[in-house]
Amino acid sequence: MAESSLVEIQIPQQKLFNRIQFPAVVGPSPSSVPFTLSLFIKTIQTQKPFIQSVLHKSGAVLFRGFPVNTASHFNDVVEAFGYEELPYVGGAAPRNNVVGRVYTANESPPDQKIHFHHEMAQVPEYPTKLFFFCEIEPKSGGETPIVLSHIVYERMKERYPEFVERLEEHGLIYTRILGEEDDPSSPIGRGWQSTFLTKDKFVAEQRAAKLGVRLQWLDNGGVKTVMGPIPAIKYDESRQRKIWFNSMVAAYTGWKDSRNVPEKAITFGDGKPLPGDIVHDCSRILDEESIAFPWQKGDVLLVDNLAVLHSRGSFNPPRRVLASLCK
Fold first, then answer.
1. What is the C-alpha separation between 136 and 311, in angstroms, rounded?
2. For residue 320, is pLDDT > 60?
3. How far apart are CA 152 and CA 43, in angstroms?
């Protein structure tokens, strides 16, 4: 009987960067026995070195053609990798726990685009790996575009060397006003109680302090959070290259709701405002270099959060994409 095995396959949306396909796409070998969920999980465990090498080379791996049908199945797949879970403390997106270590990806309305960002780049403790799972494929739109961070850094450094130099010197300050409760009408609508996993202001202050976040309580029960200065450019030790590790474009163009004004949400680390024309041009570069594939039911996407930024396109429901964060 043939053994179960994984092989790299191709989809039309991939791009080549330095002769490496982005993202890598992995499917069942044609010579494999038909995959069951338990066989897929066992194969992940036995072929993890192969998967790790593909992830390190490409930055993102799409698993397609495997029998992953429910949130519970997805949780089993995430567990099979053996990565430690990262609690979602300090993130901005409104999210609900579904099962185990699986959450909804973002509860914001479907007509809203979520701009490119590294997950939780605005706090010191961020996930190194992200999993996404398509439980219900979108009627239309709703892709999760991804882009290689070092490519963005290289293009920005070439076009705006002085701006990038200032970013490297000063970093960024992120400012966000949170209500008490979650606001699902906003892509950054997570209230302070779920952000810090408590209803106690003193406990919230303690947990914020551990993240390096300063809190200023407001009369309406909300709170102003100030994070930074925090580096906007990092060095990826494992790949030996600089990366564009920040949520600058997402904050400047998308942190908008009844409480927040995007232009005030992010500044240089010295408090000076960012040049809007450069931020918007960076957004164009992100779009130019990105790839977006239509989700198919059962798809699992593994993303190296240091190597890759991600976003979300607007969509026509139904769509259900779930996520899991790993240390």
1. 18
2. yes
3. 34
Indicate the helix (H) or strand (E) that contains 310: strand 308-312
Instruction: Provide CB contacts within 8 A for 211, sequence distance 6+.
Output: 89, 90, 123, 124, 125, 227
Are 304 and 55 within 8 A, CB to CB?
A: yes
pLDDT of residue 1: 32
DSSP 297: T
Looking up tokens 């026509």 gives 316
The alpha-carbon radius of gyration of the chain (Å, integer) is 20
Out of 3.60.20.10, 3.40.50.300, 3.60.130.10, 2.40.50.140, the CATH code matching 6-108+127-138+293-326 is 3.60.130.10
Domain 149-287 has CATH 3.60.130.10: yes
CA 326, 247, 203 angle in degrees (round to 5)? 60
Peptide bond into 87 cis (omega under 30): no
Instruction: Determine if the peptide bond prior to 23 is cis (ω within 30°).
Output: yes
Which of 126, 118, 116 shows the shortest CA–CA distance to 88?
Answer: 126
Residue 96 structure tokens: 């609900």
Please give the model's pTM, rounded to 2 decimal places: 0.93
| Strand pairing class (60-63; 300-304) | antiparallel
Q: Do the beta carbons of residue 127 and residue 207 sit within 8 Å?
A: no
How buried is residue 18: exposed, middle or buried, by Cβ count under 10 Å (0-12/13-18/19+)?
exposed
Q: Which amino acid is at 283?
A: S
Q: How confident is the model at residue 105 (pLDDT cuts 50, 70, 90)?
A: confident
Token reading at 3: 């053994």
Joined together, the tokens standing for residue 327 give 């240390």
